Amino acid sequence: MAELDVGRHCQVERCRRLDFLPFVCDGCSGVFCLEHRSRESHSCPEVTVINERPESDPRASHPCSFRGCAERGLVPLMCPYCEKNFCLRHRHQSDHECEKLEIPKPRMAATQKLVKDIIDSKTGETSKRRKGAKNSETAAKVALMKLKMHAAGDKSLPQTERVYFQVFLPKGGKEKRRAMFFCRGWSIGRATDCAASLASLKNDNNRPTAKKLRLCHSVSGEALPLDHILETWIAKEDCPLYNGGNIILEYLSDEEQFLKNVDSYLE
């Protein structure tokens, strides 16, 4: 005669209760009574594994809001315009495609005209300007070979992506200039942050009311717009930046769009 199914005993040693409708745990596959059916009540190994998982580092609790970026920061870097937090790489408006980024087109046109007037006044006639530009390009090529030997920058950048500059540092500091290289695909703002870090300069560019560090053209003195890409200035036909040429780093207020006494930096 076949043995009747009269249930099964709970696997908890201190219980061993016979249950006609036992509960099978989906975590450890053990058999338990109604009282010990929860994972916590029968000390399920699955619970132990979950509890022993390391918690996320509380020091890095500021995630980047840029889509697809998984970086987290030790300190918050809030965009003063859209008021969202971003990592160092996406802190500037152009780098995180800020929803409140505004491009003042009329002012930009006026600025370009002013730059052209300044360049024309310094270089004279058109033929002389072209000759001066050619000389600047030649001088930059010669300087580039020297800069490559001792320039500072992100060593992980491929050689094909690097652009080299003799960076003239803000007045009043102990150091007058330093050779640096940046990525040609970086925004001007990111290159400015990199230069400040390499020269150990105070950088309050994320504070709306503070004076900002700006990279300025060594001929016109124009403060390069932070959201422009470095490569676009290298590819310009009129008054470009040269790979191996000079560039000036200085503190300017939001109202200042040009650097005064450019020649005094280069003397």
Q: What does the model show?
A:
By secondary structure, the chain is α+β, with helices and mostly antiparallel strands. Helix content is 27%, strand content 15%. The protein contains six helices and ten strands, in the order E-E-E-E-H-E-E-H-H-E-E-H-E-H-E-H. The protein has helices at 45-51, 105-123, 126-150, 188-198, 230-234, 262-266; strands at 8-9, 18-19, 23-24, 31-32, 62-63, 72-73, 162-168, 177-183, 212-217, 246-252. It has a four-stranded mixed beta sheet with strand order 8-7-10-9. A two-stranded antiparallel sheet has the order 1-2. It has a two-stranded antiparallel ribbon with strand order 3-4. Residues 48-54 and 125-132 have low confidence and may be disordered. This is AN1-type domain-containing protein. One of its GO terms (cellular component) is cytoplasmic stress granule. Keywords: Metal-binding, Zinc, Zinc-finger.
Could you name the key traits of this structure?
27% helix; alpha+beta; 267 residues; two-stranded antiparallel sheet; 6 helices; elongated; Znf_AN1
The count of helical stretches stands at 6
Helix content bin: 25-40%
The 3D shape can be described as: elongated
Could you list the spans in which at least 5 consecutive residues all have pLDDT below 50? 48-54, 125-132
Beta-strand residue percentage: 5-15%
- What Rg is obtained from the alpha carbons, in whole angstroms? 32 Å
Distance between the termini: 110 Å
Q: Tell me the major beta sheet.
A: 4 strands, mixed
- Summed over residues and divided by their number, the pLDDT gives a mean of 81
Protein name: AN1-type domain-containing protein
Organism: Ovis ammon polii
Domain AN1-type: 4-52, 58-106
GO biological process, one term: stress granule disassembly
